Amino acid sequence: MSEEEKILEEVTGADYKYGFTTDIESDTIPKGLNEDVVRLISSKKEEPEWLLKYRLKAFETWKKMEEPDWANIKYNKPDYQDIIYYAAPKQKKKLNSLDELDPEMKKTFDKLGISIDEQKKLAGVAVDFVMDSVSVATSFKDKLGELGIIFCSISEAVKEHPELVKKYIGTVVPTSDNFFSALNSAVFTDGSFCYIPKGVKCPMELSTYFRINQAGTGQFERTLLIADEGSYVSYLEGCTAPMRDENQLHAAVVELIAMDDAEIKYSTVQNWYPGDANGVGGVFNFVTKRGICHNRSKISWTQVETGSAVTWKYPSCILKGDNSIGEFYSVAVTNNYQQADTGTKMIHLGKNSKSTIISKGICAGKSEGSYRGLVKIQKSAENARNFSQCDSLLMGDKCGSHTFPYIEVKNKSAKIEHEATTSKIGEDQIFYCNQRGIGTEEAIALIVNGYCKDVLNQLPMEFAVEAQKLLAISLEGSVG
Amino acid sequence: MDKQLYMLKINNLKASIEGNKILTGINLDVKPGEVHAIMGPNGSGKSTLSSVIAGREEYEVEDGTIDFDGESIMDLSPEERAHKGIFLSFQYPIEIPGVSVSNFLKTSLNESRKAQGLEPMPAGDLLKMMREKMELLEIKKGFLSRSLNQGFSGGEKKRNEIFQMAMLEPKLAILDETDSGLDIDALRIVANGVNKLKSKDNATVLITHYQRLLDYIVPDFVHVLYNGRIVKSGTKDLAHELEEKGYDWIIKEAEQL
User: Using the beta-carbon criterion (under 8 Å), do A451 and B77 form an inter-chain contact?
Assistant: First the structure.
């Protein structure tokens, strides 16, 4: 066997480390989707009339839409009538602090290596755990409250800050935007809400750990983040999911609003269950993430995508304001039979708006990875700038990497640069590392982390460490 | 007993790559404290020999044995051989983009320590050691944060190899054409570094085309490799003779055998 084939096999042999389920009693409703289900979700969450109307309108829109098939992915379309749209872990009482967390649940987080104890030690991190669809516990709320920062579940925000939710929800991603955003708008059950008041720099990284738990439950997260004028926030989102045989649907919507002079840094480490080595099971991840930048504001998306059987995700920026900045830094790893079609859209409307795209794809096994990006310079965007770099790293010869860059320019003053490379991890590199005492698995991790450095550097420190571990785990094999 | 005297003992080593026989019966004994030079014309098998000692798997070992510190290393992986103290300075050092020199060294050093059951070296000690060794090789400060070998000049690459050797403190260092691509100043610095790292407990095998390097690093033994075999061995005088007369006379001698 050649060195390359061996590496390939080792990589393909990596088992999903986080495959386990937590045994917690759940409150679920019957499978399927119709108007009554939408009404039931709304009533279970004790929502106001306007939100029910919003959901019903979205549901009507969704019914008329067709699931898109333009992406470079192949999958069996989910049966939307075979999904449970609501599941809330039953709780004996409301938690006042993380210490009161269900021991079973605590164990789950311990296994993930993101134990709450550890989290607490990571000073300055407020964590809003999402177990299935309902937030279980929220911390550091008081401290944030002093600054006027609101960080809570979206359901709570609907109850306590309805005016903010009503004003902004659906303004960046309209219900009719696409099939999955319409579905999400109709049935979303939880997610996070964040508001940073004028001039406030959020002193800590805000983070949420998402997790699918209930078998056969689709998760429809809704995140709404508003940074008011001159404010700053860094938001972290990380996910792992337990092993499943059936496909699980995940269709989240994230909306970011950066008012004048505000800055939002949104970082994601995504590790949904990717399916087994034969391509059975795994999460379908169809996410709509978009932010709008007003004058002189900045939105920076950073993502490390290692999981899911199918990923369909394009965190985007609408650079509406003059001198606004959009950034997209991405590492997308696919292994075994995973498929990812991911990238970004940078829509330039404002004068002197700038955008940067750094995309690093890593393909191993029999996987397919695609970068799909759109850079659109509208007529109004005088002196707009874009720099894009799309690199692919291939491991073995059974995977595929594809790049689909779209560029539309309607203003002659625009400057656009696009660079792309494709490379392979060479036997020479591996042998060089081996000769220096570094084993093959460790060598691959080292080379891959080096390749992704420009993106990993964008992550907050503790998250970067976690992401590095995740990259190593995703490409780890059974050497022995 | 006698076995223990040798650090490296190669016996009748035959190796091929993709069906081409490259090594046709190498015998070589290296004791601690010795410096051996292996010379020979292009294609004689010099680099293959170093790769096979280091354990590169593309080469098929067909016959013979390699013992290191009295034990066979034939079944060991390249990293296991490295952990035992075998270091190969590459003729063409490999680039690893995005991995800094310091990060690579840290990983390398700590993997070797792990294999010996030691804890990772504390960051402070590591930094101190790096500074000392950098001074030895006249390496500038910003060097540590550069991507490994990426955009390095030929001289920087070779100096980086010797820097790694200085950090890893191997028992056996095989320097494959370390002098190629070096100007005279770089050659002096590299050779000086190698000389300072020599001790009675470690050994050096120099693989080189030219006598030039041997003016700086004086060998105890010189071997001439031709057609995958050592056809002549001698002292440093043999190197001078080669410089004057070329390889032809040895080749003729060898072919008459």
Answer: no
* Higher pLDDT among residues A239 and A329, named by residue: A329
Q: What is the ipTM of this complex?
A: 0.95
Residue spans of the domains in chain A: they are: 19-437
- B interface with A, Cβ–Cβ < 8 A, is 54-58, 77-79, 82-83, 87-88, 90, 93-99, 103-104, 107-109, 111-112, 115, 147-148, 164, 168
Question: Which chain B residue is nearest to residue A2, measuring alpha carbons?
Answer: B58
Q: Which residues of A touch B96 (CB under 8 A)?
A: 429, 432-433, 446-447, 450
Q: Provide mean pLDDT across the span A374-400.
A: 91
A-chain residues near B97 (CB < 8 A): 450-451
| pLDDT, chain A, mean | 80
- The helix (H) or strand (E) run that includes residue B253 is helix B248-256
What is the per-residue pLDDT for A126? 46
Domain ranges (residues) in chain B: 2-256
Place of tokens 């042998």: A431
Task: Identify which of A345, A344, A342, A338 has the alpha carbon closest to the alpha carbon of residue A364.
Answer: A338
End-to-end CA distance of chain B: 34
For residue A268 the two structure tokens come to: 């994601």
Task: Indicate the class that CATH gives domain B2-256.
Answer: alpha beta
Judged by CB atoms closer than 8 Å, whether chains meet at A434 and B104 is answered as: no
Nearest chain B residue (CA) to A446: B99
Closest CA to B6 of B147, B162, B172, B130: B172
Q: Is B171 exposed, middle or buried (0-12, 13-18, 19+ CB in 10 A)?
A: middle
d(CA A107, CA A272): 19
Degrees, nearest 5: CA angle A444-A455-A369 = 65
What is the Cα–Cα distance from A223 to A301, expressed in whole angstroms? 14
Q: What is the pLDDT of residue A156?
A: 85
Ramachandran assignment for A170, one of left (phi > 0), alpha (psi -120 to 50 degrees), beta (any other): left
Residues A447, B96: C-beta atoms closer than 8 Å: yes
* Tens digits of residue pLDDT in A207-251: 764 434 444 445 788 999 999 999 999 998 875 544 454 557 888
B162 vs chain A: nearest CA distance in angstroms?
12
CB contact under 8 A, A435 and B78: yes
Which of A94, A204, A227, A209 has its CA nearest to residue A146? A204
B148 contacts in chain A (CB < 8 Å):
450
